[in-house]
Amino acid sequence: MKLVFLGPPGAGKGTISRMVSERLGIPQISTGDIFRTAVKEKTELGLKVQAILAAGGLVPDELTIAIVKDRLSWPDAQRSYILDGFPRTIAQAEALAGFSSLDAAVDFEVKDELILFRLTGRRVCKVCGAIYHVVTKPPKVEGICDLCSGELYIRNDDKEETVKARLNAYHEETEPLIGWYGNRSLLLTIDGSPDAETVYNAFISEIGRFLRK
Ligand code: AMP
């Protein structure tokens, strides 16, 4: 199954795509993770995108599209993949349609107030990338990952001002994709506000009708 996960930052795209990836063995491809790794490793790409990520803006389409096109050519992505955080603009969706055919675009709906609460309380494991929340999913030991004992950190772009900029970018650039995929009968809308297990189960019970088409 070939899917894209839409929805605002903090809608749960990362969490749910990881659950699907681990439970169903489908590669999860996150453009945000690709960019963050590049910034951490100070690669040429990282130096180009560092300031954009820190400000909560969008990386230029041309660069983002080239990265995804290359990643989708790898052998593990030939039958199935989940694109988490791509496309984020109509131009990216059009480009993707030119080099891959999707089964569905899954939109996780969450209100802005809940996004702010989720992102400003989010903590991520430096080592394995597991995601926690200080209120709703605290680790057993503060600051330490339950899974691998790695150190938890606050993403640079989870500060309140940056979250607001990311939400603006979402409403302006990405939200129009909901209509774009709706017009192509590829849109599956899932309520992203409950806990992750509930959202996952809703996704699993709905996705089948797109795969049988
Ligand atoms: P995410 O982890 O998906 O929230 O992405 C983190 C940041 O990476 C975003 O705020 C953007 O700056 C950048 N980014 C990720 N995916 C894209 C994309 N498809 N197009 C442009 N910028 C992106």
What does it look like?
This protein is α/β, with parallel strands linked by helices and 213 residues long. The chain has a single domain, classed as Rossmann fold (3-Layer(aba) Sandwich). The chain contains 9 helices and 8 strands. The chain has a 5-stranded parallel sheet with strand order 2-3-1-4-8, with helices on both faces. Strands 6-5-7 form a 3-stranded antiparallel sheet. It is globular, with a radius of gyration of 16 Å. The structure holds adenosine monophosphate (AMP). The site of adenosine monophosphate has 18 residues, from helix 2 and helix 3. Adenosine monophosphate binds next to helix 2 and helix 3.
